[in-house]
Amino acid sequence: MSASTLVTDAVQDAGRLAALRDAGLLDTAPEEVFDRFTRLARELLDVDVSLVSLVDHDRQFFKSQAGLPEPWAGARQTPLSHSFCQRVVRTGQPLVVSDPKEDSRVAGNGAVRDLGVTGYAGVPLTLAGGQTLGAFCVITGEPHSWTDREMRTLHAARTRGSQRREPRASWRSAISSSRLGTSSTFWCRTRSVAA
Fold first, then answer.
1. What mean pLDDT do residues 95-110 have?
2. What is d(CA 83, CA 77) in angstroms, rounded to the nearest whole number?
3. Dihedral sign from CA coordinates of 95, 139, 189, 5
4. How far apart are CA 1 and CA 56, in angstroms?
5. In what order do the strands lie in the sheet with 95-97?
6. Domain boundaries 3-178, CATH class
7. What span, in angstroms and rounded, lies between the C-alpha atoms of 117 and 51?
8. What is the phi/psi pair of residue 65, to 5°?
9. Which residue has the higher pLDDT, 75 or 10?
10. In whole angstroms, how far apart are CA 169 and each of 32, 99, 160?
């Protein structure tokens, strides 16, 4: 089975897509609780773009973005042909790309040509039930060798967002209280990075 088939299988998984729909986040307005973490990651890591990307069956929807240029910022989505984040969904693991021209996993991805994506680091956004809905990621317009410190910072920003207790001040409370109901919890798995 090819890598492309594996990506399609995981992205198209009926249980994952149902969980994504049940989350109630697709095609919703930007929310400060998410935007706070994308802005923080962009600033701390000194990158061009930071995203909370939710991977649907044929597109990725940006629940939050900081630094994305137009027309993509206004559209808040791209087709999967322009998605590195679908690879995070496939594996449930972080994806680190220093230079897409040197990385067969993203060779030919439209995001390189049309959005100027070069350096990419993304970590999974996973529900307690194990379904990976998308990725919390950062992007640079130049090749970038991601350091251990940068990856720890990205994990910490994502994890901090899932662990804060203030109402509407974390991804967990944003999703569990307003989207999934009080019995559901959202959490992001912290995993080691295999660069």
1. 93
2. 10
3. negative
4. 22
5. 77-79, 59-66, 49-55, 132-140, 119-126, 95-97
6. alpha beta
7. 12
8. -150, 145
9. 75
10. 8, 34, 10
The DSSP bridge partners found for residue 77 are 61
Every domain of the chain and the residues it spans: 3-178
Q: 156-183 pLDDT, tens per residue? A: 887 765 543 332 334 444 444 333 332 2
φ, ψ of residue 128 in degrees (nearest 5): -60, -30
103-162 pLDDT per residue, tens: 999 989 999 998 889 999 999 998 888 899 999 999 999 999 999 999 999 988 877 655
Angle (deg, nearest 10), helices 171-178 and 32-45: 160
Between vectors from CA 114 to CA 95 and to CA 116, what angle results, nearest 5°?
55
3-state secondary structure the chain: CCHHHHHHHHHCCHHHHHHHHHHCCCCCCCCHHHHHHHHHHHHHHCCCEEEEEEECCCEEEEEEEECCCCCHHHHCEEEHHHCCHHHHHHHCCCEEECCHHHCHHHCCCHHHHHHCCCEEEEEEEEECCCCEEEEEEEEECCCCCCCHHHHHHHHHHHHHHHHCCCCCCCHHHHHHHHCCCCCCCECCCCCCCCC
Q: Which one, of 182, 186, 123, lies nearest residue 152 by Cα?
A: 123
